[in-house]
Design brief:
The protein has 14 helices and 22 strands. It is α+β, with helices and mostly antiparallel strands and about 475 residues long. Strands 12, 16, 17, 18, 19, 20 and 21 form a seven-stranded mixed sheet that branches. The protein has a six-stranded mixed sheet with strand order 3-2-1-4-6-5, with helices on both faces. Strands 7-8-11-10-9 form a five-stranded antiparallel sheet.
């Protein structure tokens, strides 16, 4: 049969399955997934795969939704393959979390698929997206305003678990196959609802484009998607390498890069590096629009400091010549103070840091230039000192400086962003700062020749600064 042979060739050409795998078809009961399920059943021995089905009942169409689930169960029983049916409450989720019906249904549907993969019930989830679906996706993304990733359409595979074996197949081919084999399927009444943007593109825009502009518009859009997918992959790969080269991992999901390094890139790579940074800090790219990316890009290229805050606690802050990417609640820690000890460890829970203090016989061959670990004259550190954060009126005499200055000026001169200053760990006696962890040591406590006893003070956290 032409349809089945074409599916086999597509699976083999793109290596979507491997012998011995269990492939689970996401079966809605509609034409596309029914054709995919029955065709894969005919091919399973030749492909040397196991086959199962799963159906997610969104509960949005009452008895019609239940009938879809029953259809998939009966079809799976007739084929003697395992079938998982799970009902989800899309309407209830929307009441609690908001969102559109289509996006919420998709999120919950894929949540079920992910659990099937995670529990080892299947190696692959096969969804029945066709070339027509791909063309619709490209058009929708174009109308919304999208870059290469959006114009790449639907990928043949997503991650390690999702495959789309029908992306090389037209909808009319699916229907012709079902008719020629006498295979029944379900019709979703919402597919004709004009309130959904995808339905309007499918039922109105594409037919108009076929009639008035290009009879092969679906094929043309799919070709564009393939070209853009390659371009997008190249840009993403290049941006990933550039991000690793120009950014500094400060630990705790924080990354910093120099403005000049970002400005020196082509605008297309600037945007992709920014998107890559959002992924690296754990924000992801959901709901990140072109406007978001462009605001961040222009902020980084302008000469003034500023912030860009995205939902999901993503913070992009530009200060001096640096661009900072991190996730943060935006709340500075309250004032904290912990007594200094001369032997042992002090945990500063407010900022999640542990400081170790011990007496040593001799200084190291080389001192830490980043001041994460310092060596001080034992007798020069006064009793009554505290580990704390900054206070108004704090002063500091950095090693090598001609005299004392305000701590605030020192931090500004060192280009420490203002939002980090309240979280700095200090060793202080009164208003005199003896050590700014990770930044500097006071002239007063610096290790001098002939010191009778030596204190080693250091932050133990590997990701500190």
């Amino acid at each position: 049969m032409v349809f089945t042979h074409k599916l086999l060739e597509y699976l083999r050409r793109h290596r979507l399955t491997d012998p011995g795998e269990m492939v689970c078809v996401a079966a809605s009961g509609g034409a596309d997934s029914t054709a995919l399920l029955t065709a894969l059943y005919a091919l399973k021995d030749e492909l040397k795969i196991g086959l199962s089905a799963c159906h997610v009942n969104h509960g949005l169409r009452g008895a019609e939704s239940d009938a879809d689930a029953e259809f998939v169960e009966l079809l799976s029983k007739r084929l003697s393959i395992p079938c998982v049916v799970e009902k989800v409450d899309v309407a209830g989720r929307i009441k609690v979390s908001g969102g559109t019906v289509q996006s919420t249904a998709r999120e919950m549907r894929y949540g079920v698929f992910e659990r099937i993969l995670d529990k080892g019930f299947a190696d692959k989830i096969a969804t029945a997206h066709t070339a027509d679906d791909n063309a619709e996706t490209v058009l929708l993304n174009l109308l919304r305003g999208s870059g290469p990733a959006g114009l790449s359409g639907i990928p043949r595979r997503r991650g390690k678990g999702f495959i789309r074996p029908l992306l090389g197949t037209r909808k009319w081919e699916v229907l012709a196959h079902l008719e020629s084999t006498g295979t029944a399927h379900r019709e979703d009444s919402t597919n004709a609802a004009s309130k959904y943007a995808r339905n309007r593109v499918r039922n109105e825009l594409i037919p108009l484009l076929e009639k008035e502009h290009n009879p092969a518009i679906v094929e043309a859009l799919c070709k564009t998607a393939e070209i853009m997918a390659d371009a997008s992959d190249f840009i993403e790969h290049t941006a990933s390498e550039l991000f690793d080269r120009i950014s500094e991992d400060e630990g705790g999901g924080r990354f910093t890069m120099r403005r000049a390094d970002l400005a020196g890139l082509h605008p297309a790579l600037q945007r992709e590096v920014i998107r890559h940074a959002l992924t690296k800090i754990g924000r992801g790219l959901a709901d990140v629009t072109f406007e978001h990316t462009e605001n961040i890009r222009l902020l980084a290229l302008e000469s003034v400091d500023g912030d860009e805050i995205l939902r999901g606690a993503a913070m992009i802050r530009v200060a001096h010549d640096l661009v900072h990417f991190f996730r943060d609640s935006g709340k500075a820690p309250a004032e904290f103070s912990h007594p200094f000890i001369r032997q042992g460890s002090v945990y500063v829970g407010e900022i999640g840091r542990t400081v170790a203090v011990e007496t040593v016989d001799r200084p190291p061959p080389e001192f830490d230039p980043e001041f994460k670990t310092v060596f001080a004259d034992f007798d020069s550190v006064p009793d009554g000192a505290f580990f704390r954060n900054r206070r108004s009126g704090d002063v500091f005499h950095p090693i090598g400086a001609s005299g004392t200055m305000k701590l605030k000026k020192f931090l500004i001169d060192r280009k420490i962003p203002r939002w980090e200053r309240d979280s700095l760990l200090l060793l202080a006696h009164g208003s005199e700062i003896l050590w700014v962890a990770g930044i500097g040591l006071s002239e007063r406590v610096r290790l001098k020749p002939g010191a009778a006893k030596i204190l080693k003070i250091g932050v133990q956290d590997e990701n500190f600064r």
